[in-house]
Amino acid sequence: MEISVRKGDLTQQSCDLLVVNAFLSAKSGLKAGSGSAGELGGATGAVNAALDGDLEKFMKEDSFKAKLGSTFLMRTNGKIPAKRVLVVGLGKKEEFDLEAVRQAAATSMNVAKGLGVNAVSSILHWAGTGELKATECAQAMTEGIRLTNYNFDTYRSSKKEKSKVQRFDIVVPQAQDVRHAAKGVELGELMARGTILARDLVNTPAQDMYPEKLVEAAHQIVKGKGTLRIRVYDRAALTRMGAGGLLGVAKGSDHPPYLVHMVYKPKKATKKRIALVGKAVTFDSGGLSLKPADGMMTMKIDMAGAAAVLGTFSVIADVAPACEVHGIFGAVENMPSGKAIRPGDVLTAMNKKTIEVLNTDAEGRLTLADTLTYANKQKPQVIIDLATLTGACMVALGEEITGIMSNNDDLSTKLLEASASVGEKMWRLPLEKNYRKLLKSEVADMQNIGSRWGGALTAGLFLEEFINKTPWAHLDIAGPAYAEREIDAYTRKGATGHGVRTLLSYLRNI
Ligand code: BES
Ligand code: ZN
Ligand code: ZN
């Protein structure tokens, strides 16, 4: 499918499906428009006029309410070149934002897929006030369309879900908007591509996505790109580096551990150096502290942090932020066996701190202890880690919101802004000093679990021990990394690729 921008008149488009929109108003369910006879405004009003007012008439007869994501479909009976018109509800104008644009575009794509049509022409969903610029709206539309079109059918014998949509044209009335919107489409394509790569990596079963495969994925991404480099450390190297956390967690698995370090350095890099760190447990059985069957069902997703970093790196050369970026993850599989670490064992992390492992299922922090120490050695100005770290974070914030813990208000604010702009929901949680006592061990420098309560926070405090005051943010993505059910118009059940778009948006704006 090709998404493109064209200058033109919506009433004159030859296509299978013409997408227009309407805001919700309290009075009639439709927003009073300007410049048209009826209540539909702008280009939608023009299409209504070309249809002799039928569109508005039928919408009223069917009591259509333009709630966000609602749709109204009608045949045009030859009155205009388009075969059908689809009105997509945008919700209340006061609540309209880029996420509404994404959802509206996604909704139209879902309808187009369902109808099995070939060519779609759409209005650029836009308040037209200048506040939401053509570029940003076209970007959001492209993200919504592409992410809706995603499906993971590698392991299906029949690929029946395949969309028939070949063209999705965004039609704008003015030549200057074509340029802006086309730029937005370009960036939206990159955002979506990175997100989709992360989704694919996470959706792939752990039988085929073990540490070596993540290393391979990193090599693939770096290959042939002048601004990217990669370095991989194997078990022998990790032993020399004293990476006791990664080596300890990997002990129970037949798959050896690796530490992967990718670097993006643009030709004219600014002084700023950012490190992105991802949790990469390719399967989390819990180890000897074995998870119950239900809890283990989705644990192929425990490398979603690294997948977000890989997704980001897969398009970073094209998104081309001005800063230097390091992408780092320590890939391991957490399995029980005669060789596995036991509750009570003590590991020594790369920074020489000793950790008493009281629960082998709190393995992510053991791997991050080393990975964060390694990241710190690159002397970045900022470290951001993403990890499916705790079920407790899901208890706190539910399935759709990431918990941010940070030692730096400015960084935290910037990440919250970036996440809001791309529609990935995040909320800050505290790094409460008073809870540090919960990680005190009887026998070692610290233990790897806290008390029954506040588990997301004690996990964050544990990670902070490996940070050394560098501005750092920890994103606990345990909930949003994977959708247990359909969440919205462009996020169906399965891996979401959550984090990629926030990272890219953050990197573009520093
Ligand atoms: N990978 C899990 C966290 C997780 C749970 C991610 C559900 C996604 C969905 C992590 O390694 C884990 O098992 N954490 C334990 C920590 C506990 C033992 C202190 C948890 O959350 O129960
Ligand atoms: Zn675990
Ligand atoms: Zn885990």
What does this structure look like?
By secondary structure, the chain is an alpha/beta fold. 35% of the residues lie in helices and 21% in strands. The chain contains 15 helices and 19 strands. It has an 8-stranded mixed sheet with strand order 7-8-10-9-13-17-14-15, with helices on both faces. Strands 1-6-5-2-4-3 form a 6-stranded mixed sheet, with helices on both faces. The chain has a 3-stranded mixed sheet with strand order 11-12-16. The chain starts with a strand and ends with a helix. The model is unreliable at 32-37 (pLDDT under 50). The chain binds ligand BES and zinc ion (2 copies). Residues 281, 284, 302, 363-364 line the site of one zinc ion.
Give a topology summary.
Layout (H helix, E strand, L loop, with lengths): L1 E6 L9 E8 L17 H9 L3 H8 L9 E5 L8 E9 L5 H18 L3 E5 L10 H16 L17 E6 L2 H29 L7 H12 L5 E6 L1 H7 L2 H7 L7 E7 L8 E12 L8 H4 L7 H16 L4 E11 L11 E3 L5 E3 L7 H14 L4 E6 L3 H7 L4 E5 L2 H14 L3 E3 L17 E2 L7 H10 L7 E5 L5 E2 L10 E2 L4 H9 L2
Parallel strand pairs: 1-6, 2-4, 2-5, 5-6, 9-10, 9-13, 12-16, 13-17, 14-15
Antiparallel strand pairs: 3-4, 7-8, 8-10, 11-12, 14-17, 18-19
The structure holds ligand BES and zinc ion (2 copies).
